[in-house]
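Researcher: Good morning. I'm working through a list of sequences from a screen, and I'd like to move beyond sequence-only analysis. For each chain I'm collecting a predicted structure so we can compare shapes side by side. This is the next one on the list. No need for commentary yet; just the structure.
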Amino acid sequence: MDIDVRGPRFGAAVTTVVLAAALITGSFWLLAWQTLAFALGAAGGVGRSPYGLLFRKVVRPRIGPPTEFEAPEPPRFAQAVGLSFAAVGLVGYGIGPAWLGLAATGAALAAAFLNATFSYCLGCEMYLLVRRVTVRAE
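Model: Good morning. Structure tokens for this chain:
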């Protein structure tokens, strides 16, 4: 079942704010929260992530029904990519080196910002590239 394209973009906007705050403050706990949000989005799809639930219950009723849809697999893959970067960031913030936490969090922030601002999902593009390569290889 396809999903409302505005949901992942809303999630990316919230993610941008959370990751920016984590990067500015160096907060392990903010990054841990975002890591959990990524994990839930990767495991259950973006609609089951905290930001997806917030979008569905609070935002979408105020902005009306969707007019554009997309397949759920690319955003779900993007959540898994975000989870990977956030997990590496947690390692950097938690046990070091600190630059690893900063770099991984900054990379995840850049990707979330691109999606929120320009509707360009790097993880989704990676998913499509992986699909093209694996389908040809079979």
